[in-house]
Amino acid sequence: MTPGRPVPPPLAQPAAPSTEPSSGGVLAAAYGATSPDSGLVPLTLARRTPKADDVEIAIEYCGLCHSDVHATRGEWGGTAWPLVPGHEIVGTVRRVGSAVVDFAAGDRVGVGCMVDSCRTCESCLDGLEQYCENGMTGTYGAIDRRNGDSVTQGGYSSSIVVDRRYVVRVPESLDPAAAAPLLCAGVTTFSPLRHFGVEEGDVVGVVGLGGLGHMAVKLARAMGAKVVVFTTSDAKVAAALELGADEVVLSRDEEAMAGANRSIDLIIDTVAAPHDLNPYFRTLRVDGALFQLGLPSEPMPPVNPGSLIRRRIAYAGSLIGGIAETQEMLDFCAGHGVAAEIEMVRADQLNEAYDRMVAGDVKYRFVLDTSTLHAPAKEAHA
Q: The domain that contains 246 carries what CATH number?
């Protein structure tokens, strides 16, 4: 969930603030918002005591996602305060519940955009927990299925407790900080590439070159595809080529767009602002597809059905990835040397980083170093 894919957390009402952790629980230092106008401020969380199938994680790094900005600034409404964002979490296992056999203390692990789902619907049983028919539980801002009177709090924190089924293993060969954005931006672009069956010789177009777009370029190249980046900015041409793009097309250049006619097999569109898709449909071959990952806040220009019909083109959407697919993505990245391009930030730089994200001033993801959080206060505020 990035500038290319803001997805609002479920509506939730906050529980009364807890002042002490439950027996065996832990106080965690955190940064979060206490109102739409508060900015990010130091907080202390009371994390639950690990249940039999829980994993307690000492968080090392947490990626910053554009959806974090929307949520903490109350731009989606229905926000429960206080709110600690963060759903691109990498850390090490501190302890596990009595029924956990697949993780042990010291393991490096990750947590992405969800920490639970109903586990019984068709989507969950098919390993597509992100499409849970009863609603997945977001890593922050959602009613906690494990404890229905509380709201989930995210990874801008020194620790978190998560059911083992929603924890993934981070391969040792991945830099842990650069791996954090893979838990959202990585799997969000990996999933449609895998679903379409991208392979060597395919041509993949990427619209937009932000947090999502740069991962789409890297992953498609690692799958053997030729990559064409579409951008409105001359300034991004060199950057796209440095990331591995084979070609860059300025989408506001009608002649360049005409030259790309019928040349693309699959387009990954990461742009979250309203834009006309019809010119991109014309670049697709017969049986091509455009996957929309960006979720604009304003209406998009209408799609001309004729553009789809005349070439049997599919227009589709995609939401993050399931837990098994997230693990597959991490293993793929480890095997192909793929990681996010990041800029590390301290806790006291978070508000500045949010402003820079809104301005598009980041190449290409910010990652919070949680060692810069203050020690937790004696009283928990969330």
A: 3.40.50.720
